[in-house]
Every structure is written in C-alpha cells, then in structure tokens.
Fold:
Amino acid sequence: MKINQINLFHLRMPLVSAFETSFGRIHTRDCVLVEAFADGLVGYGECPADFDPGYSYETVGTAWHILKDFLVPAILDQEIIGADDLQHKMAFVRGHLMAKAGLEMALWDLFGKAQGKSLKEMLGGVHQKVEVGVSVGLQDSPAWLVEVVQGYLDLGYQRVKIKIKPGRDVGDAIAVRKEFPYLRLQVDANSAYSLESAVSLTPLDELGLLLIEQPLAEDDLWDHSQLQARFQTPICLDESITSPRLARQALEMKSCRVINIKPGRVGGLSQGLAIHDLCRGKGIPVWCGGMLETGVGRASNLAMASLPGFTLPGDISATDRYYEEDITSERFMLNPGSTISVPNAPGLGVNIDRSALDRATLASLEIINQ
Ligand code: OSB
Ligand code: MG
Structure:
C-alpha cells in the first residue's frame, strides 16, 4: 500500500469536567489527528500528545514538527507492507513515540478497510466487550472526591482509579475506601514521588488496592524495584514503559508486577502488541491505559484491550465521561457489567463527523508530494 496524502489536524476539545493530575489541571484536551489516503481509502490515527509536556516530553507542537518534517516525508508514496515495515521506515527518528503511534494507527485503519477486517481481528482480539473503569482526577477535597466517585458508580463503573500527589494521597484513598469497602480501587501518582518521599505512601498498602501506578520518575526502573520490594500491593508502570525492551527489563528487575499499555506511549499498536505478548508469556497482567482520547483513539484502545492478556479493566470510559461532542459519529456507551463493546466494522470501525471535526480544528495541513 502507498499513502499518497496525509493531512494533519490540531484538535482542541472541551472536556465535560476539568481533569487534574499531579502534573496539572486541564479544561480542554489537544491532540493531533492524522488523516491518510491510499488506494481510494482514508484512514485515521490519533497522536495523543497534549498541549503541555506534563505527562510526556511530547506535545502537539513537537508531534506536528516531527510528523510534518520527518515521518510523513519519509513514508509518502513508499510501498508499506505492514506496521513492522512502517516502524522500520520510522526508526531513523529517535523517540517521538506518540507521533509515530498516530501514523501507525492510520495505517492499521487503512489496512483494515482494504482487507475488510476490524482492528480487533487484525490484532488477534478475543473479547467482544472489554471491562473498563474510570480515571478520576484530583478533586477539591476528599469529601468531594467521594461524591464524584459515587456519581460514577451510579453510572455503572465498577473500577475506579484516583489520581494522587504529595499531600493528597493517603487521606484521599482512605476516604474512598471507607465509603466503598469492596470497590475495585487503584491510584495513579504520575511520577510525583521520589524513593524517599514515597515512604508517605506506606499506609496505602493496607487498603486492598488493585495497584499503585507510576509512583516514581519515568526514567527510574531501579528505584521502582526498591519500592516494589517494600509493598505488597502491585506497582504498575505507565510512563516508564516506552518499549518492549524496557518492559522486559522492568520485569527482570521486578520494578513492577503489572503494566499499563498505552499504544500511544510505546510508539504504536505493534509495540503495544509486543509488550502484551511478552507479559502474557510471563503471566504478568496488563491493562489498557487512556489519554482522554477522541473516538478515534478510543476505538483503537478498545481493540487493543480485547487481546487475551488484558485481564484488568482499562481506563476506557464512555464518550460522555469526556466529551459532549466527539469527532466520531459513533459514541461509546457503558454496558451493564462495566464493559464497552469493541467496534467490529473494518479498520478502527468509526466514522468521522466532519462538522464536529471542523469545530474542533485549530489548524490543519495537507502534505502531498508534488
Ligand atoms: O496517567 O493514565 C494516565 C490521562 C492523560 C494522561 C495520562 C493519564 C490519563 C488518565 C486518564 O489517567 C485515562 C482516561 O480515561 O483516558
Ligand atoms: Mg497513568
């Protein structure tokens, strides 16, 4: 398949409620949408880099630059036989994994449409519905956090993740645990602690949490191994796992007992699949994280989460938890049992709502070889 044109869209979408993590509070979510044309078909990919370099060093600005000036020129009008081939063609760019992931997703969508196969089928997914939870941002007080969690339980979510940061950790988690003794509960620190300051998290070990996500720095597999040795609760790595190789090293070092797979963070679905296969072989549970994606990225995450090794609920909530208006015509709903159905139509299985896309677009660019 040869891609003959790629359009980039810088999107900004208002969130239904502000989302606060240890690295900041946002009211709108930016991303880059990749639109790729080949053989009379069009495929879409979402690059989940945000406006600010808070979660990752990548931003919409860096992804735009890397796509426009390096990745797209390198692959336009070239024969591409699959995702591994695309990764090979993109390997001259060091890092910039979210930019690469956006392009790879568009290629999967095109291949699926060309072959009449859903992404789930192409990846080897085995579930038609996947278990999901909700990721709840930092709130103004523990009491209000309990109210917000109650609201999500009322909607049918059966697994809750709360964000923590120094000073807003043990108290918040205890408040939620006291109110909901049997809730499947986990916490995410987004790298807010050091090995020394993480001593304050010791009481979390008594709360029956599913896992403690990314307490320490992104580049600190060693200290995570020291911390894991002190905790009964599994540590789960998110930011630290940016490749199948780092996943293997984290497991060999016992830096974690669970891995959060975000295809965007690891450079694409092919890399997510490789981490899934590695973990499955070692009996390590994985789950699909989220980055407040649009319907495009959400469809991709659902397909990924349908693989057999995804044995913990994903951070893949219903569309209305994030956006009043999405750029896909399809909206994802929560089924009874805290699941979301995986799309079955070819490729990602979603259609772009052109007028919604227009309303969300801050800038766009057509890239075509003359
Ligand atoms: O750390 O998992 C995270 C959102 C943006 C960036 C990082 C993270 C998150 C979430 C939200 O926790 C997950 C979602 O519902 O999409
Ligand atoms: Mg996380």
